[in-house]
Specification:
This is DUF4218 domain-containing protein. It holds the Pfam family DUF4218. InterPro entries: DUF4218, Transposase_21. The chain is mainly alpha-helical. Among the domains are: about 190 residues, no CATH class; about 110 residues, no CATH class. The chain contains 18 helices and eight strands. Strand 4 and strand 5 form a beta hairpin. The longest helix is centred in the C-terminal third of the chain and has 21 residues. The protein is globular. The protein starts with about 20 loop residues before the first helix and ends in a 20-residue tail after the last helix. The protein binds zinc ion. The site of zinc ion has 5 residues, from loops.
Length: about 500
Protein backbone atom coordinates (compact mmCIF):
# COMPACT_ATOMS: atom_id res chain seq x y z
CA UNK A 1 0.00 0.00 0.00
CA UNK A 2 1.26 3.50 -0.82
CA UNK A 3 2.07 5.60 2.17
CA UNK A 4 -0.33 8.36 1.06
CA UNK A 5 -3.29 6.01 1.39
CA UNK A 6 -2.45 4.60 4.80
CA UNK A 7 -4.41 7.29 6.58
CA UNK A 8 -7.94 8.29 5.74
CA UNK A 9 -8.13 11.70 7.32
CA UNK A 10 -11.34 13.13 8.70
CA UNK A 11 -11.82 16.65 9.97
CA UNK A 12 -12.72 16.81 13.64
CA UNK A 13 -13.27 20.45 14.64
CA UNK A 14 -12.68 21.90 18.06
CA UNK A 15 -9.99 21.70 20.68
CA UNK A 16 -11.58 18.82 22.57
CA UNK A 17 -11.44 15.08 22.04
CA UNK A 18 -14.63 13.86 20.30
CA UNK A 19 -14.98 10.85 22.65
CA UNK A 20 -18.41 9.33 22.04
CA UNK A 21 -19.17 11.78 19.24
CA UNK A 22 -16.62 10.10 17.01
CA UNK A 23 -19.45 8.37 15.16
CA UNK A 24 -20.68 11.75 13.90
CA UNK A 25 -17.41 12.20 12.04
CA UNK A 26 -17.37 8.64 10.77
CA UNK A 27 -20.63 9.12 8.88
CA UNK A 28 -19.04 9.96 5.49
CA UNK A 29 -16.82 6.89 5.80
CA UNK A 30 -19.74 4.62 6.64
CA UNK A 31 -21.76 6.11 3.78
CA UNK A 32 -18.98 5.31 1.32
CA UNK A 33 -18.54 1.81 2.74
CA UNK A 34 -22.26 1.17 2.35
CA UNK A 35 -22.11 2.40 -1.24
CA UNK A 36 -19.07 0.26 -1.97
CA UNK A 37 -20.88 -2.79 -0.61
CA UNK A 38 -24.32 -2.21 -2.16
CA UNK A 39 -23.46 -0.72 -5.55
CA UNK A 40 -19.68 -0.77 -5.97
CA UNK A 41 -17.77 1.64 -8.22
CA UNK A 42 -16.39 1.36 -11.74
CA UNK A 43 -12.65 0.71 -11.66
CA UNK A 44 -10.01 -0.14 -14.24
CA UNK A 45 -7.88 -3.27 -14.07
CA UNK A 46 -4.51 -2.40 -15.64
CA UNK A 47 -3.35 -6.01 -15.93
CA UNK A 48 -6.44 -7.09 -17.93
CA UNK A 49 -6.99 -3.66 -19.56
CA UNK A 50 -10.70 -3.66 -18.75
CA UNK A 51 -13.19 -2.07 -16.44
CA UNK A 52 -14.73 -3.92 -13.54
CA UNK A 53 -17.10 -3.24 -10.68
CA UNK A 54 -15.11 -2.81 -7.51
CA UNK A 55 -16.77 -3.61 -4.19
CA UNK A 56 -15.20 -3.23 -0.79
CA UNK A 57 -15.82 -4.47 2.72
CA UNK A 58 -14.52 -3.29 6.08
CA UNK A 59 -12.89 -6.34 7.65
CA UNK A 60 -12.12 -5.04 11.13
CA UNK A 61 -10.80 -2.08 13.06
CA UNK A 62 -7.37 -1.78 14.70
CA UNK A 63 -6.97 0.55 17.66
CA UNK A 64 -5.60 0.78 21.16
CA UNK A 65 -7.86 -0.20 24.05
CA UNK A 66 -9.41 3.24 24.83
CA UNK A 67 -10.21 3.75 21.15
CA UNK A 68 -11.66 0.21 21.10
CA UNK A 69 -14.37 1.58 23.40
CA UNK A 70 -15.08 4.55 21.13
CA UNK A 71 -15.33 2.39 18.02
CA UNK A 72 -17.17 -0.63 19.37
CA UNK A 73 -19.50 1.09 21.85
CA UNK A 74 -18.36 -1.24 24.67
CA UNK A 75 -16.91 0.86 27.51
CA UNK A 76 -13.37 -0.30 28.24
CA UNK A 77 -13.23 0.89 31.85
CA UNK A 78 -14.41 -0.73 35.01
CA UNK A 79 -15.16 -4.26 36.01
CA UNK A 80 -16.83 -5.23 32.73
CA UNK A 81 -14.17 -3.76 30.48
CA UNK A 82 -13.20 -7.05 28.81
CA UNK A 83 -15.29 -7.13 25.61
CA UNK A 84 -15.02 -10.93 25.35
CA UNK A 85 -15.92 -11.97 28.89
CA UNK A 86 -18.67 -9.32 29.11
CA UNK A 87 -20.85 -9.81 32.19
CA UNK A 88 -19.54 -13.35 32.77
CA UNK A 89 -16.29 -12.02 34.18
CA UNK A 90 -15.00 -12.76 37.69
CA UNK A 91 -13.29 -9.37 37.93
CA UNK A 92 -13.83 -7.40 41.12
CA UNK A 93 -12.89 -4.13 42.73
CA UNK A 94 -10.00 -4.08 45.22
CA UNK A 95 -11.01 -2.83 48.64
CA UNK A 96 -8.01 -0.58 49.29
CA UNK A 97 -6.59 -0.14 45.78
CA UNK A 98 -10.08 0.82 44.47
CA UNK A 99 -9.19 -0.52 41.04
CA UNK A 100 -10.80 -3.24 38.97
CA UNK A 101 -8.83 -6.44 39.32
CA UNK A 102 -8.67 -9.60 37.18
CA UNK A 103 -6.89 -11.70 39.78
CA UNK A 104 -7.97 -15.35 39.73
CA UNK A 105 -10.11 -14.92 36.59
CA UNK A 106 -8.10 -17.42 34.58
CA UNK A 107 -8.49 -20.75 36.34
CA UNK A 108 -11.82 -21.19 34.55
CA UNK A 109 -9.93 -21.35 31.23
CA UNK A 110 -7.94 -24.39 32.41
CA UNK A 111 -9.02 -27.99 31.63
CA UNK A 112 -11.78 -29.13 33.99
CA UNK A 113 -9.53 -31.67 35.75
CA UNK A 114 -6.56 -29.35 36.30
CA UNK A 115 -5.27 -29.40 39.92
CA UNK A 116 -5.11 -25.58 40.05
CA UNK A 117 -8.91 -25.49 39.93
CA UNK A 118 -9.13 -27.20 43.30
CA UNK A 119 -6.37 -25.24 45.04
CA UNK A 120 -7.60 -23.17 47.99
CA UNK A 121 -4.22 -21.65 48.89
CA UNK A 122 -2.38 -20.66 45.68
CA UNK A 123 -4.99 -18.22 44.35
CA UNK A 124 -8.00 -16.66 46.10
CA UNK A 125 -8.08 -18.23 49.55
CA UNK A 126 -10.72 -20.88 50.16
CA UNK A 127 -11.99 -20.72 46.60
CA UNK A 128 -12.30 -23.57 44.12
CA UNK A 129 -13.24 -22.97 40.51
CA UNK A 130 -15.61 -25.24 38.60
CA UNK A 131 -16.89 -22.82 35.93
CA UNK A 132 -15.93 -23.17 32.29
CA UNK A 133 -14.68 -20.28 30.16
CA UNK A 134 -17.28 -17.56 29.47
CA UNK A 135 -19.37 -18.21 26.34
CA UNK A 136 -18.74 -16.07 23.26
CA UNK A 137 -21.53 -13.84 21.99
CA UNK A 138 -21.98 -13.70 18.23
CA UNK A 139 -22.70 -10.55 16.21
CA UNK A 140 -26.42 -11.23 15.66
CA UNK A 141 -27.02 -11.68 19.40
CA UNK A 142 -25.14 -8.46 20.20
CA UNK A 143 -27.17 -6.61 17.58
CA UNK A 144 -30.38 -7.95 19.10
CA UNK A 145 -29.23 -7.10 22.65
CA UNK A 146 -28.35 -3.53 21.67
CA UNK A 147 -31.95 -3.09 20.51
CA UNK A 148 -33.24 -4.67 23.71
CA UNK A 149 -31.14 -2.43 25.98
CA UNK A 150 -32.21 0.62 23.97
CA UNK A 151 -28.66 1.67 23.01
CA UNK A 152 -28.90 4.66 20.71
CA UNK A 153 -26.84 5.42 17.65
CA UNK A 154 -24.86 8.66 17.99
CA UNK A 155 -25.73 9.73 14.45
CA UNK A 156 -29.40 9.92 15.50
CA UNK A 157 -29.23 11.31 19.02
CA UNK A 158 -26.15 13.55 18.61
CA UNK A 159 -22.82 13.50 20.40
CA UNK A 160 -24.17 14.87 23.67
CA UNK A 161 -27.66 13.43 23.39
CA UNK A 162 -27.01 9.98 24.83
CA UNK A 163 -29.03 8.85 27.81
CA UNK A 164 -27.43 6.05 29.88
CA UNK A 165 -28.29 2.65 28.42
CA UNK A 166 -30.38 0.41 30.66
CA UNK A 167 -28.16 -1.80 32.87
CA UNK A 168 -24.84 -0.30 31.78
CA UNK A 169 -22.01 -1.16 34.18
CA UNK A 170 -24.06 -3.91 35.83
CA UNK A 171 -25.18 -6.43 33.22
CA UNK A 172 -23.27 -5.06 30.23
CA UNK A 173 -21.01 -2.16 29.22
CA UNK A 174 -22.68 -0.98 25.97
CA UNK A 175 -22.85 2.81 26.08
CA UNK A 176 -24.03 3.30 22.48
CA UNK A 177 -24.87 1.50 19.27
CA UNK A 178 -21.75 1.90 17.20
CA UNK A 179 -22.16 3.33 13.72
CA UNK A 180 -20.46 0.23 12.30
CA UNK A 181 -23.69 -1.68 12.93
CA UNK A 182 -25.15 0.35 10.02
CA UNK A 183 -23.02 -1.78 7.72
CA UNK A 184 -25.24 -4.64 6.55
CA UNK A 185 -22.52 -7.28 6.98
CA UNK A 186 -21.15 -6.12 10.35
CA UNK A 187 -23.15 -8.55 12.48
CA UNK A 188 -21.91 -11.49 10.40
CA UNK A 189 -18.26 -10.74 11.14
CA UNK A 190 -16.55 -13.07 13.59
CA UNK A 191 -13.85 -10.52 14.44
CA UNK A 192 -14.99 -6.90 14.37
CA UNK A 193 -12.45 -5.05 16.51
CA UNK A 194 -8.87 -6.14 17.16
CA UNK A 195 -7.21 -6.05 20.54
CA UNK A 196 -3.91 -4.34 19.86
CA UNK A 197 -1.06 -6.72 20.68
CA UNK A 198 1.47 -3.88 20.57
CA UNK A 199 -0.10 -1.92 23.43
CA UNK A 200 -1.02 -5.00 25.46
CA UNK A 201 2.54 -6.31 25.23
CA UNK A 202 4.01 -2.91 26.14
CA UNK A 203 1.73 -2.44 29.15
CA UNK A 204 2.28 -6.00 30.32
CA UNK A 205 6.03 -5.60 30.06
CA UNK A 206 6.07 -2.29 31.90
CA UNK A 207 3.97 -3.71 34.72
CA UNK A 208 6.28 -6.70 35.09
CA UNK A 209 9.58 -4.84 34.90
CA UNK A 210 8.49 -1.98 37.17
CA UNK A 211 7.28 -4.45 39.78
CA UNK A 212 10.44 -6.55 39.57
CA UNK A 213 12.68 -3.48 39.81
CA UNK A 214 10.38 -1.93 42.44
CA UNK A 215 10.17 1.45 40.69
CA UNK A 216 8.44 3.86 43.05
CA UNK A 217 5.13 5.11 41.69
CA UNK A 218 5.07 2.48 38.94
CA UNK A 219 5.30 -0.80 40.84
CA UNK A 220 2.11 -2.77 41.36
CA UNK A 221 3.42 -3.90 44.76
CA UNK A 222 2.63 -0.83 46.83
CA UNK A 223 1.15 -0.09 50.25
CA UNK A 224 -2.46 -0.48 49.15
CA UNK A 225 -1.57 -3.72 47.44
CA UNK A 226 -0.06 -5.04 50.69
CA UNK A 227 -3.25 -4.08 52.53
CA UNK A 228 -5.34 -5.90 49.95
CA UNK A 229 -3.18 -9.02 49.85
CA UNK A 230 -4.36 -10.70 53.09
CA UNK A 231 -8.00 -10.08 52.14
CA UNK A 232 -7.77 -12.24 49.02
CA UNK A 233 -4.72 -14.51 49.37
CA UNK A 234 -3.12 -16.70 52.00
CA UNK A 235 0.52 -15.82 51.34
CA UNK A 236 3.23 -15.36 53.91
CA UNK A 237 5.28 -12.50 52.45
CA UNK A 238 3.02 -9.71 53.63
CA UNK A 239 5.83 -8.15 55.70
CA UNK A 240 8.95 -9.32 53.86
CA UNK A 241 10.54 -8.81 50.46
CA UNK A 242 8.45 -10.70 47.90
CA UNK A 243 10.15 -13.35 45.75
CA UNK A 244 9.63 -11.42 42.51
CA UNK A 245 11.53 -8.31 43.64
CA UNK A 246 15.20 -7.97 42.61
CA UNK A 247 17.62 -7.23 45.41
CA UNK A 248 19.92 -4.23 44.99
CA UNK A 249 23.02 -6.27 44.09
CA UNK A 250 21.04 -8.38 41.61
CA UNK A 251 19.53 -5.26 40.08
CA UNK A 252 23.01 -3.83 39.42
CA UNK A 253 24.02 -7.18 37.93
CA UNK A 254 20.98 -7.10 35.64
CA UNK A 255 21.70 -3.54 34.46
CA UNK A 256 25.38 -4.38 33.92
CA UNK A 257 24.34 -7.28 31.75
CA UNK A 258 22.02 -5.04 29.70
CA UNK A 259 24.74 -2.41 29.30
CA UNK A 260 27.79 -4.55 28.67
CA UNK A 261 26.70 -7.85 27.21
CA UNK A 262 23.41 -7.47 25.38
CA UNK A 263 24.00 -6.86 21.68
CA UNK A 264 21.54 -6.92 18.82
CA UNK A 265 22.18 -6.81 15.09
CA UNK A 266 22.06 -3.37 13.47
CA UNK A 267 18.56 -1.98 13.13
CA UNK A 268 16.95 -4.73 15.20
CA UNK A 269 16.43 -2.60 18.32
CA UNK A 270 17.50 0.73 19.69
CA UNK A 271 20.53 0.87 21.97
CA UNK A 272 19.18 -0.49 25.24
CA UNK A 273 22.18 0.72 27.24
CA UNK A 274 20.82 4.26 26.83
CA UNK A 275 17.61 3.22 28.56
CA UNK A 276 19.31 2.07 31.77
CA UNK A 277 19.08 4.53 34.65
CA UNK A 278 21.41 3.28 37.41
CA UNK A 279 20.62 6.19 39.72
CA UNK A 280 16.91 5.51 39.99
CA UNK A 281 17.21 1.80 39.26
CA UNK A 282 14.84 1.67 36.32
CA UNK A 283 14.51 1.78 32.55
CA UNK A 284 13.78 5.17 31.02
CA UNK A 285 12.69 6.24 27.55
CA UNK A 286 11.81 2.79 26.29
CA UNK A 287 9.72 2.84 23.11
CA UNK A 288 7.04 0.26 22.35
CA UNK A 289 9.45 -1.62 20.12
CA UNK A 290 12.12 -1.77 22.85
CA UNK A 291 9.54 -3.29 25.20
CA UNK A 292 8.63 -5.73 22.42
CA UNK A 293 12.26 -6.81 21.97
CA UNK A 294 13.06 -7.14 25.66
CA UNK A 295 9.81 -8.98 26.34
CA UNK A 296 10.33 -11.55 23.61
CA UNK A 297 14.11 -11.87 23.37
CA UNK A 298 15.45 -11.19 26.88
CA UNK A 299 12.73 -12.02 29.41
CA UNK A 300 12.69 -15.76 28.57
CA UNK A 301 16.14 -16.12 30.19
CA UNK A 302 17.08 -12.76 31.76
CA UNK A 303 16.17 -13.70 35.33
CA UNK A 304 17.32 -17.29 35.30
CA UNK A 305 20.11 -16.69 37.84
CA UNK A 306 18.69 -13.57 39.44
CA UNK A 307 15.33 -14.77 40.73
CA UNK A 308 13.99 -18.02 42.11
CA UNK A 309 13.33 -20.75 39.61
CA UNK A 310 9.52 -20.65 39.80
CA UNK A 311 9.49 -16.84 39.41
CA UNK A 312 11.85 -17.02 36.45
CA UNK A 313 9.69 -19.69 34.80
CA UNK A 314 6.49 -17.67 35.26
CA UNK A 315 8.06 -14.52 33.77
CA UNK A 316 9.75 -16.44 30.95
CA UNK A 317 6.40 -18.04 30.09
CA UNK A 318 4.75 -14.76 29.17
CA UNK A 319 7.77 -13.68 27.09
CA UNK A 320 7.67 -16.93 25.14
CA UNK A 321 3.90 -16.62 24.68
CA UNK A 322 4.23 -13.19 23.03
CA UNK A 323 7.17 -14.40 20.94
CA UNK A 324 5.15 -17.32 19.58
CA UNK A 325 2.04 -15.20 19.08
CA UNK A 326 3.97 -12.63 17.04
CA UNK A 327 5.63 -15.17 14.74
CA UNK A 328 5.23 -14.52 11.04
CA UNK A 329 3.46 -17.78 10.32
CA UNK A 330 0.80 -19.27 12.52
CA UNK A 331 -0.50 -22.80 12.19
CA UNK A 332 -3.74 -24.23 13.57
CA UNK A 333 -1.69 -26.49 15.87
CA UNK A 334 0.41 -23.53 17.03
CA UNK A 335 -2.67 -21.47 17.89
CA UNK A 336 -4.24 -24.42 19.71
CA UNK A 337 -1.01 -24.73 21.70
CA UNK A 338 -1.07 -21.01 22.55
CA UNK A 339 -4.71 -21.24 23.69
CA UNK A 340 -3.80 -24.19 25.87
CA UNK A 341 -0.74 -22.53 27.40
CA UNK A 342 -1.91 -18.99 28.14
CA UNK A 343 -4.29 -19.81 31.07
CA UNK A 344 -1.46 -21.78 32.67
CA UNK A 345 1.03 -18.92 32.12
CA UNK A 346 -1.27 -16.33 33.69
CA UNK A 347 -2.12 -18.70 36.57
CA UNK A 348 1.61 -19.11 37.26
CA UNK A 349 1.89 -15.33 37.51
CA UNK A 350 -1.18 -15.21 39.77
CA UNK A 351 0.57 -17.59 42.15
CA UNK A 352 3.34 -15.01 42.65
CA UNK A 353 2.20 -11.47 42.00
CA UNK A 354 -0.31 -9.61 44.19
CA UNK A 355 -3.93 -9.09 43.02
CA UNK A 356 -3.27 -5.43 42.20
CA UNK A 357 -0.86 -6.57 39.45
CA UNK A 358 -3.71 -7.96 37.37
CA UNK A 359 -5.43 -5.12 35.60
CA UNK A 360 -7.22 -5.62 32.29
CA UNK A 361 -3.94 -5.61 30.32
CA UNK A 362 -2.84 -8.74 32.18
CA UNK A 363 -6.18 -10.37 31.36
CA UNK A 364 -6.50 -9.57 27.64
CA UNK A 365 -3.71 -11.96 26.47
CA UNK A 366 -6.09 -14.82 27.29
CA UNK A 367 -8.21 -13.79 24.28
CA UNK A 368 -5.35 -13.15 21.86
CA UNK A 369 -4.95 -16.73 20.52
CA UNK A 370 -8.64 -16.78 19.68
CA UNK A 371 -8.28 -13.53 17.71
CA UNK A 372 -5.22 -14.95 15.97
CA UNK A 373 -7.26 -17.99 14.95
CA UNK A 374 -9.85 -15.71 13.33
CA UNK A 375 -7.66 -12.93 11.95
CA UNK A 376 -4.30 -14.57 11.29
CA UNK A 377 -0.81 -13.30 12.16
CA UNK A 378 -0.75 -10.22 14.35
CA UNK A 379 1.53 -8.30 11.97
CA UNK A 380 -1.55 -7.34 9.94
CA UNK A 381 -3.68 -6.46 12.94
CA UNK A 382 -1.57 -4.31 15.24
CA UNK A 383 -0.65 -0.65 15.54
CA UNK A 384 3.03 -0.75 14.58
CA UNK A 385 2.59 0.24 10.88
CA UNK A 386 0.38 3.18 11.81
CA UNK A 387 2.57 4.35 14.67
CA UNK A 388 5.62 4.16 12.41
CA UNK A 389 3.81 6.08 9.68
CA UNK A 390 3.31 8.96 12.12
CA UNK A 391 7.02 9.67 11.71
CA UNK A 392 6.33 11.06 8.23
CA UNK A 393 3.44 13.42 9.10
CA UNK A 394 5.41 14.62 12.13
CA UNK A 395 8.26 15.61 9.83
CA UNK A 396 5.87 18.00 8.09
CA UNK A 397 5.13 20.01 11.20
CA UNK A 398 6.27 23.61 10.83
CA UNK A 399 4.17 25.36 13.43
CA UNK A 400 4.87 23.66 16.75
CA UNK A 401 2.05 25.46 18.53
CA UNK A 402 -0.50 23.96 16.08
CA UNK A 403 0.86 20.52 15.35
CA UNK A 404 -2.31 18.86 14.02
CA UNK A 405 -3.27 21.84 11.86
CA UNK A 406 0.20 21.96 10.43
CA UNK A 407 0.04 18.28 9.47
CA UNK A 408 -3.41 18.67 7.89
CA UNK A 409 -2.29 21.67 5.83
CA UNK A 410 0.69 19.79 4.39
CA UNK A 411 -1.18 16.55 3.79
CA UNK A 412 -4.12 18.29 2.12
CA UNK A 413 -1.72 19.88 -0.37
CA UNK A 414 -0.09 16.60 -1.20
CA UNK A 415 -3.17 14.44 -1.51
CA UNK A 416 -4.75 15.94 -4.68
CA UNK A 417 -1.39 15.78 -6.43
CA UNK A 418 -0.86 12.15 -5.50
CA UNK A 419 -4.36 11.24 -6.63
CA UNK A 420 -3.84 13.05 -9.92
CA UNK A 421 -0.50 11.41 -10.53
CA UNK A 422 -2.00 7.99 -10.03
CA UNK A 423 -5.30 8.53 -11.81
CA UNK A 424 -4.53 10.67 -14.84
CA UNK A 425 -2.07 10.96 -17.66
CA UNK A 426 0.96 13.20 -17.20
CA UNK A 427 -0.09 15.85 -19.69
CA UNK A 428 -3.34 16.37 -17.79
CA UNK A 429 -1.45 16.60 -14.56
CA UNK A 430 0.82 19.26 -16.01
CA UNK A 431 -2.20 21.28 -17.10
CA UNK A 432 -3.76 20.92 -13.69
CA UNK A 433 -0.50 21.95 -12.06
CA UNK A 434 -0.48 25.08 -14.20
CA UNK A 435 -4.03 25.84 -13.16
CA UNK A 436 -3.16 25.32 -9.51
CA UNK A 437 -0.08 27.51 -9.77
CA UNK A 438 -2.27 30.27 -11.21
CA UNK A 439 -4.81 29.80 -8.46
CA UNK A 440 -2.20 29.95 -5.71
CA UNK A 441 -0.61 33.00 -7.30
CA UNK A 442 -4.01 34.63 -7.44
CA UNK A 443 -4.64 33.79 -3.81
CA UNK A 444 -1.29 35.14 -2.66
CA UNK A 445 -1.85 38.34 -4.59
CA UNK A 446 -5.40 38.87 -3.43
CA UNK A 447 -5.39 37.81 0.21
CA UNK A 448 -2.96 40.34 1.70
CA UNK A 449 -5.02 43.27 0.47
CA UNK A 450 -8.59 42.61 1.42
CA UNK A 451 -9.51 38.96 1.67
CA UNK A 452 -13.27 39.07 2.11
CA UNK A 453 -13.96 41.80 -0.43
CA UNK A 454 -11.87 40.09 -3.06
CA UNK A 455 -13.58 36.79 -2.53
CA UNK A 456 -16.36 37.33 -5.12
CA UNK A 457 -13.75 38.20 -7.72
CA UNK A 458 -11.78 35.09 -6.93
CA UNK A 459 -14.92 32.97 -7.05
CA UNK A 460 -15.85 34.51 -10.40
CA UNK A 461 -12.48 33.66 -11.92
CA UNK A 462 -12.52 30.18 -10.50
CA UNK A 463 -16.07 29.65 -11.70
CA UNK A 464 -14.98 30.68 -15.17
CA UNK A 465 -12.10 28.23 -15.08
CA UNK A 466 -14.41 25.43 -13.97
CA UNK A 467 -17.01 26.23 -16.62
CA UNK A 468 -14.41 26.28 -19.39
CA UNK A 469 -12.99 22.97 -18.34
CA UNK A 470 -16.45 21.52 -17.90
CA UNK A 471 -17.37 22.50 -21.45
CA UNK A 472 -14.25 20.86 -22.78
CA UNK A 473 -15.14 17.78 -20.67
CA UNK A 474 -12.08 17.98 -18.43
CA UNK A 475 -14.00 16.88 -15.39
CA UNK A 476 -10.91 15.90 -13.45
CA UNK A 477 -9.58 19.45 -13.72
CA UNK A 478 -12.89 20.76 -12.41
CA UNK A 479 -12.70 18.43 -9.43
CA UNK A 480 -9.12 19.36 -8.76
CA UNK A 481 -9.87 23.07 -8.90
CA UNK A 482 -12.76 22.56 -6.54
CA UNK A 483 -10.51 20.77 -4.05
CA UNK A 484 -8.03 23.57 -4.33
CA UNK A 485 -10.73 26.20 -3.71
CA UNK A 486 -11.73 24.48 -0.52
CA UNK A 487 -8.13 24.50 0.58
CA UNK A 488 -7.64 28.15 -0.29
CA UNK A 489 -10.81 29.18 1.50
CA UNK A 490 -9.73 27.23 4.55
CA UNK A 491 -6.35 28.90 4.43
CA UNK A 492 -8.01 32.30 4.15
CA UNK A 493 -9.95 31.40 7.31
CA UNK A 494 -13.12 32.57 5.62
CA UNK A 495 -14.95 29.66 7.15
CA UNK A 496 -14.38 26.35 8.85
CA UNK A 497 -16.29 23.44 7.44
CA UNK A 498 -17.83 20.68 9.39
CA UNK A 499 -19.46 17.55 8.18
CA UNK A 500 -23.06 16.74 7.49
CA UNK A 501 -24.98 19.95 7.78
CA UNK A 502 -23.50 21.33 10.96
CA UNK A 503 -23.56 25.12 11.08
CA UNK A 504 -20.95 26.92 9.01
CA UNK A 505 -19.22 29.46 11.14
CA UNK A 506 -17.55 32.70 10.15
CA UNK A 507 -14.69 32.44 12.64
CA UNK A 508 -12.47 29.41 13.01
CA UNK A 509 -12.30 27.59 16.32
CA UNK A 510 -8.99 27.15 18.05
CA UNK A 511 -7.27 23.86 17.28
ZN1 LIG B 1 -11.94 -11.55 29.03
Amino acid sequence: MRREFLFLSILVPGPEHPKRSLDIFLQPLIYELQMLWDHGVEAFDVSCQQNFKMRAVLMWTISDFPAYGMLSGWTTHGRLSCPYCEENTDAFQLKHGRKSCWFDCHRRFLPSDHPYRRSTTLFTKNKKVFDGPPPLTDGSTIFHLLGEFGAESTSYCGGNGHVPVYGVGEVHNWHKKSIFWDLPYWKNHLLRHNLDVMHIEKNFFENIINTILNVQGKTKDNVKSRLDLPLYCSRDYVEVVPPYRLKVARKTEFFDWIREDVRFTDGYASNLRNCVDYGQGKFTGMKSHDCHVVMQRLLPFAFEHLLEKNVHKAIAGIGVFFRDLCSRTLTAEGIACLSENIPMIICNLEKLFPPSFFDVMEHLPIHLPQEAALGGPVQYRWMYPFERYMFHPKKKVKNLSKVEGSIVARVSTKKPHTLLNITFHRKFVRRVDDQLAMMIEERDRVIPRMPLNCLPKLVERVGKAITENYRSKNMHICICIFLQIVRILCNMKVFTWTLYGRTTRSTPRKT
